[in-house]
Write a structure and sequence with these properties.
The chain is mostly helical. Helix content is 86%, strand content 0%. Belongs to the binding-protein-dependent transport system permease family.
Length: 253
């Protein structure tokens, strides 16, 4: 019963909000260029699906490349910080600094330095996705039971074996927690990059239709962004359960 409630309650709230939205737009005769009704947004998605799909593929490519690079970089940096306190003390403040500078400030600089192609969008995604993965994984590695590590050391295990057998499997939950956040951020990062300089992508298309006051198409882009973000988050969860099935069993218990 509780499981059904967890599924049904968000659906009911969604239906209620959409219904109120639709009725309010119709009752108060709100113009399309101010606030489109949900039915108009659905029609915009259906009528322009080919265009939205084409631009989605551009955005998805930028997001996935940035996500993969940022994840690999974050894993190595996190392991390095766990191995060396000196390295962690030296680099940690700079990781914090990368999150204090607004990405809208860095974006134009990336475009000047790297041009208007794929590179600046990917770099923006890396900046947005790197931090949660690195910090979550580093914290998870630091919380591994020292007794287990010392036991392996007593059997003569190397550093590589310790990380392979104990630390990485134990820290996997933290890694995937950060990766789920990054998977949600990566689409937004690609969109920001496209706002600043692009000739294709959902961000580019959104700006184009916004300038024409076609808000139904703007909301159609927003819906596509939400869908892709959710799908990437679910994909990370699926990979988590495939690579570490014991995590799924633990959550069930």
């Amino acid at each position: 019963m509780k499981t059904k409630q967890k599924v049904m309650m968000p659906i009911l709230v969604f239906i209620l909000v959409i219904s109120i939205w639709e009725m309010s737009v119709r009752a108060f005769h709100i113009s399309l260029y101010v606030l489109p009704a949900p039915s108009k947004i659905v029609m915009a998605i259906l009528d322009n699906f080919d265009i939205l799909w084409m631009h989605s593929m551009v955005t998805l490519k930028e997001a996935l490349i940035g996500l993969v690079i940022s994840t690999l970089l974050a894993i190595w940096i996190a392991i390095g910080m766990d191995l060396s306190k000196v390295f962690k003390t030296s680099i940690y403040p700079y990781l914090i600094v990368t999150q204090t500078v607004p990405i809208m400030v860095l974006g134009p600089l990336f475009s000047i330095w790297l041009g208007f192609g794929l590179a600046p969008k990917v770099l923006i995604v890396i900046f947005m996705c790197f931090f949660p993965v690195a910090i979550s994984f580093c914290d998870a590695l630091g919380q591994v039971d020292e007794k287990q590590v010392n036991l392996l050391k007593s059997f003569g295990a190397s550093t590589f074996q310790i990380y392979k057998m104990i630390k990485i499997p134990s820290g996997a939950l933290g890694l995937f927690s950060g990766l789920k956040v990054a998977a949600t951020y990566c689409i937004g990062g690609a969109i920001v990059g496209e706002w600043l300089s692009s000739s294709a992508g959902l961000g580019y298309y959104m700006l184009r239709v916004k300038n024409g006051y076609m808000l139904d198409k703007v909301f159609a882009c927003v819906v596509m962004i939400i869908i892709w973000s959710i799908l990437l988050n679910l994909a990370v969860t699926f990979i988590e359960y495939m690579v570490f099935p014991h995590l799924k069993k633990g959550k069930r218990k």
